[in-house]
Design brief:
CATH class of the domain at 116-288: Alpha Beta
Radius of gyration: 39 Å
Number of strands: 62
Enzyme class: hydrolase
CATH topology of the domain at 116-288: Rossmann fold
Keywords: Hydrolase, Leucine-rich repeat, NAD, Plant defense, Repeat
Distance between the termini: 45 Å
Catalytic activity: NAD(+) + H2O = ADP-D-ribose + nicotinamide + H(+)
CATH architecture of the domain at 116-288: 3-Layer(aba) Sandwich
EC number: 3.2.2.6
Shape: globular
Strand content: 15-25%
CATH superfamily of the domain at 116-288: Toll/interleukin-1 receptor homology (TIR) domain
Protein name: ADP-ribosyl cyclase/cyclic ADP-ribose hydrolase
Length: about 1600
Amino acid sequence: MRVDGISSRRNFSPKHHPCRPSCSVAKPPQRPSSMLLSQRYLKMSSNRGFPSFIRLPRPTPSHASSTAAAAYGFGASYPSSVSSGSCPIYADDPLGGDSRPPPLHFSLASDSQLKYDVFLSFRGPDSRENFVSHLYDDLCREGIETFVDSEKLDAGDEIEPALLDAIERSRISVVVFTKEYASSKWCLRELAKIMESRRTRGQIVLPVFLGVEPMEVRWQRGSYSVAFSRHDKAPEGSKLAEEVIEWRKAMSEAANISGFDSSTVRPASKLVDEIVANVLKNLENISLSEDEGLVGAYSQVKEVEAWLGHGLHEVRTIGICGIGGSGKTAIAGAVFNRQYQMFDSYCFLANVREQSKKHGLHALRNELLCQILGETDINIATPEIGSSSIKNRLRRKRVLIVLDDVSSITQLEFLISKTTYYSPGSRIIVTTRDMNVIKNADKIYSLKGLSKSDSLELFSQCAFKQSYPPEEYLELAMRASVYAKGIPLALKVLGSFLCKKSVVEWESALRRLNSSLDEEIFNVLRVSFDGLSDEEKTTFLHLLCFFNGHERRFITDLINGCGISADICIRGLVDKCMITFTNDRLQIHDLLKNMGRQMIKLESPQDPSRRSRLCSFDEVQEVLTENTGTIVTEGISLDISEKEELQLDCHAFEGMRNMKILKFSNEHCNEDSCKIHLPKGLHYLPTKLRLLHWECYPIASLPLSFIADNLVKIHMPTSRLERLWEGSKSLLNLKEIDLSNSQFLKELPDLSNAPKVERIEARGCAELVTIPSPRNKLESLEFLDLSGCSKLKDFPEISWNIRRLCLADTGILEVPPSIENFHQLSVLDMKRCKMLKKVALISKKLEKLECLDLSGCSSVTSFPEISYSVKELLLSETSIEEIPSAIKYFTKLQLLELKNCLRLTSLPSSICELQSIVELNLSGCSNLTSFPEITENMYNLKYLSLKGTTIRELPSSLENLTSLCSLDLENCNSLISLPDSLLKLKSLEELNISGCSNLVNFPGRIGNLGSLVTVRASRCRSEVVDFLEGGSSSLKILDLSDCGITEFPESLTLLSTVTELDLSQNCFSTVPPSIKDLQDLQSLDLSHCQELESLLGVPTGLTRLNVINSRLLETVALRNSSELQLYPLNNVEAFVFAACPSLSQYATDNIKAYAKRRIHVMASHLGLTLNFKGDDLSLNRWMKPQQVQYLLSTMYGYGNLHEALIGIHTTFFNDELILEEPPPRLIGRILHDFHERYRLDVQGLLHFFSLIAHLYLYYQGKPSTNFCLPGDNIPEWFCHQSNGSCVEVMLEHLKHSNESVTLAGFAISVLVAFQDYNDDKGISIKYECQFHFNYIRTYEGSGYLRGWDGKKGKPLCIEGDHLFLGFDSSILFDAANGIEQFVKYSEDLVKASFQCYVIDEDGNPINSCTVKKCAIQPLYTCDLFWICPFLNWQTKSLKANLSTHDITKGLTTSFTGFLEKVLRDLDLYGAISLGIMNVLGNLSVDVFHQGGYVYIIIKCENGGLPLGLQVLNLHLGTAPLAVKLIQMAKQSQDSRAFSIEFSNVDGGDFGCRIKVKKCEFRPLQSHVMICNYLSLKGTKLLDGDVTCL
């Protein structure tokens, strides 16, 4: 902390504050901190024998050995009174339990050991007499216990244990960096210990940069460089030399933490105020974890506190609901602790359920009144509070009341009576397990389980007495915490039980947990079960054994079929938090499921045949194979998918005469996957069966004797049934039959006696011929699916009430006249019924018909006569010849599909009167010659396709399609003109006129079409270019291939938003430099431009360039060295110059140089992924070390990016994400949640961006870049070259700055000779690689250098040698099987060999191509800088690095003085690295020198994040000239505008002083933001302001 002093904590006299009156030397009276306040006990005592009511206090050390029954870490044994005779607290939720709270962080001292709130680290001579004294004074003034050291150290002394102890026993360390801080070894040792405590114990560190720049501390420059140069003289290998390494690391870590900079916060008094305010805020956050012992509950406590609604004058009731052990008491207690002082009176009434049984509600109410009114002898025995005196006194008091564990409305109403009894502003908090109790509360808070990382932390505190498991226990601990599903009680109990046990004992215990619960957890959860009614208990056990995950409708039918009122029971179970429904599907918490199964096991612990329900394989196997079933058994459920086969006797079910549910599931159900066999048949099934669910049933029929009176559902898909039974059976309760894909089924059962059947599924039953006609129509049948029953000839007429009838791919010949009786029919699906002819008589009486699908019914020749209420009519590939004029009466029609109706020649004019039509598809109607005038506004039509028709013109009234989004006119060869009214389609997004070769008359220009995104005009005339001039402000995709364009249209360079441009097969000779103005362009195709001679530039964002068969092309100038564009990482780049024999030597050299730069930039993507470290995350105050470790141990274990993002969210939050959202929207939601909860600073957000970017890289595939061009030799920078198709290299492992240099991958180059090549299947280079390691087995894999794609029927002729080169990052990743082992594999690799082949797009070798030479070049990385063996990679100067990376223009030889300072201090490489890592958007940085000014242009583009977050994609380092986010511009109407400011700059070669007061990021087009020209003049600048606009 300084060069002169260690002592146990001692105060010194604060000096006069420069901006305040001096204070006395004596320590001022302290205002208790938020933590100190929470330590006070409330005297809520009573002389009674029944329980008194308390404020939950902070526990004392005497309780440290209490049992570990407390959940949520709320580890206090709360005394119920200050008097010795008081009773202990009673709590339903062991959240208010007995154990001492475990520590918050790894081995952070317990609360009694944490002596100090703040530890001050500083160098005495620099700051003791001024800044530190005032800071210390203000901290003490706020009641913050602060440690400082004021005694001198003797030279050569070691840091005393007292100082180390003080650091460990402090919650927060404030480190004051001054100019000479690093000159003190004691300060550096102190800092190393502080950062160790931060990493291992989660101590909060706040750096203060006092008269020194953060960059100087971070990179040890200036005075810090001088100081460390002295320290570096320590003998190599000595203890001091090792310490110096740790000091440097600690220094960099500390300087990377967001802190306080004296150069930006002035005057000093303001800086002190900000530090003190920050300390107080952090202490408040810590208090929840320390005082209340609540792990992961801060956000829930804050949410409940927000619902209290301070300032609102009504009486407000807050309900907190959750299952036992979920933390209700803990949350309510924490809120009570933090809020009670704001009320006149307060009372915490604990464990109302139990205490009301013991002492009665009258006694509880009396005690409540005593506490509120401050009395000791209130005794009211009447149901109502009759005393007007008491009522009046209550009305004058604002009270805070917590009623804990209320189990009935009666209890609540008796204790509270009426809320009008209390003064306005009073608050009542009620905790309960039954939602029905608090249904009238103003707010209801349903407790969620802990997040994954919080669950692991709480579990680890109990199991290991630290906040993260030891490495050898990590996997087991994660399994245990997952088992608890976020329930604090379970985590506490499990952790305490497993504490100090061996790994073997852990594994045994976890196996046992799968079948049984810990007794303590079971007893708590059983309370909820015992509180259910008999019907609710039966229903709950049915649900957990048989129906978890099923739809509510399915469950309701079966529970009702069992004689239970399903709706009432299910509602009751939901209210009591025993079950939930997500998307209308049942969900039961795993602990509740295990509790229920344990209840079933208790019915007969040793004999499963006497249990009511059998759900495990062992139970079912024992009972069924040994024929020991009894009348006790009510149900069997078994998923046989992954189990062994079962051989059952024909009498297996005879003893189970009371069985209601039989469920055999098979996830891999098919004809060959039958695992339950009945070799002797089946003679008996219980007559009480409600559900017969038997997938892959193995025999031809059910038992002859089976009585099915009680059956509700038959689910027997993919069975070997030929028929269910002979004859007719009584099926009075049957509702559903599913026999789908039963290939041998010949007939359905006679359902004459099944009046309630609602659903029949028999799709895919290829042998099904007939459907028996019941004696009476099935009045309840709503759904019938016979699709794929190809032998079925007759239309089924078994019910008139069917709503959905599926008959696709059947052999039905006609729709009978009786169809008019299907009055309820809404969907009739008869697609691909090839034999169907007669449909014209489909009755108009079907008024509820909404969808008719006759697609592919090629024998249908006339338009069906159907109800005008239909919404979807699909008639594609029919033989319909005309559409009747009555089509206008289809007033609800939204979709009309008539694709490939070859006989259709015209449309009635009335079709334009369809006011509800959304999509009209007439594509492929080749005899359709005209489209009628649109006389009325078709304001709902969005999609119109006339593709492949022979219409000559569009109606002039096209403007009446006011909502049209897509107009498809492709291959309308007869189309001559487009009407002017086309330009009035303001909603048009896509226009396709490709193949309209006779189109000559265009309207004006498309600039008015502001919504247009895509224009496809391939094979049109060149006049189309004039039509496109001016462009649309939103145009993204433009196809002008084969349009006969003879001169490159300059107007195209004005289409600044275009991302894909196809100009292939045109006749222009030059692509001008102005094409670089298309900054958003990513894909450009110039293939087959036979007249093309020069390509004078490409846009900076281009990732795909095809220039194939442009035989006159001579000049190519790819972008110059001053431009560097960094792309998102999921790109596959390809730059192809194939069959361009006229390319000049300059052009090929330019392409090769550009390829080299792109390979290195692409490799940089991978390098930054490899260099991602957990330390980056641990620099954030909001992320605890255990959360960092949890992230790093789980982030690679997901199946894809979508799962990883959800996993990251559940690590920190217990809220549910919308799982259907795509990754970009999930990223936005995650960032929003983090920012809302943690209020991250800029650095925190940036580090989190890097985490998301890292995941994006890992899961979204690896980047690659590919080049192809004519050439006769491989570039010289490939050091390992070989003739032929094979090459190998021995790997050397380099060192850079005493750090290992990681092999990131291989650049690959192949020289191919083409001879008589004439093919249309495209081309690629496949390379097979073999990696040999020192200690790891040999790996064999393959990769590709991509060439070009083929076009069927358009062969490409190529001659001569061509060079392929590129970089594919996936090859080494695949060898290492992902990112986790990448560094290990790359360091162990000693030899790599490659065999190259030329293949087509089908993977076949191309005989006309020969590999002449091949080469590989290992690429290594150290942090951000790329190293090749032939480069002088030890060079450290900024000048050399900038020059190597070709990042500037014209300045590579003159980086001196002020200009070098500017570039260095802007931390340009920090910006670039973030841009690479930030795959969510693009970042480009241009630096150039002109007219005495340095211009730095930075552009970042959002990739789908919410507006207002884009600017966070940008980071320019920290100072001088540090760009810092201040706040969102409050006055700006644009939510994307942020204000930033630059810190002062002193010095420089020219003595200039610059301050940029404000700089706005302004939006360009959609999501683009740009900081325009930042002007920094290099000579004779005066003091003043510079504004960036």
